[in-house]
Specification:
Strand order of the largest sheet: 1-2-5-6-7
Mean pLDDT: 92
Number of helices: 1
Structural class: mainly beta
Largest sheet: 5 strands, antiparallel
């Protein structure tokens, strides 16, 4: 919890409701790293062919980052719409409490119930907290298959076949939190799909 979460976020010291989730708050974050020596040498065969195989990877399951709610029309008349190269106004929309109805991003529908939000009244700050719910989470697997081949004493050749986001699981970005935007509530971006690469590394 905080009143501001970094460069560009302005603070209104008179608004006690500004205290909310930090922009970098990840409520649940499970990460496991692993490296397993594959026992191919038990099958028999040429030593250089069957020895040195291993699999490694990093798997992460995490809840999403909080959505930042903003209003960029300065209806509060505080003049905080622009305060530098990167800035977030202190203005926030009005919020009418009700079910958020979080939707599956794959549907193309707004991620949350946008009808609960409307622009603030002229000369007043909105009632919504800056951040009080989160965007889509992560389900990511980075996996590698490696082969170490000893060429001679003190010299090893490592082959690597790596796959990032190995299962090509969609990693959606956060929805648009600007109530004045035509894409308010919509998710318009995602992280990279599966990426694969092969490499050789000589260690000596």
């Amino acid at each position: 919890m905080d009143n501001a979460s970094g460069y560009g976020e302005q603070i209104n010291s008179l608004d006690r409701g500004q205290r909310s989730l930090s922009a970098f708050d990840v409520r649940h974050n499970f990460v496991i790293s692993y490296d397993y020596q594959l026992p191919f040498d038990r099958l028999g065969g040429p030593s250089r062919l069957v020895k040195g195989w291993r699999s490694s990877g990093i798997t992460r399951f995490a809840t999403g980052l909080p959505l930042t709610l903003t209003e960029s029309d300065d209806r509060s008349l505080l003049g905080t719409r622009s305060a530098g190269a990167i800035s977030l106004p202190v203005d926030a929309p009005n919020f009418n409490p009700g079910p958020l109805n979080i939707a599956d991003p794959r549907t193309g529908l707004p991620y949350f119930n946008t009808s609960l939000f409307r622009p603030e009244n002229l000369g007043q700050l909105g009632t919504a907290r800056r951040r009080f719910f989160s965007g889509p989470g992560l389900n990511n697997w980075d996996i590698a298959l490696l082969k170490d081949t000893m060429l001679k004493e003190g010299m090893n050749l490592e082959f690597r076949a790596e796959s990032f986001n190995a299962f090509n699981h969609a990693q959606f970005g956060s929805p648009d939190g600007n109530v004045n935007s035509s894409s308010f509530g919509l998710i318009t971006k995602a992280n990279a799909p599966r990426i694969m690469q092969l490499s050789l590394k000589l260690l000596f």
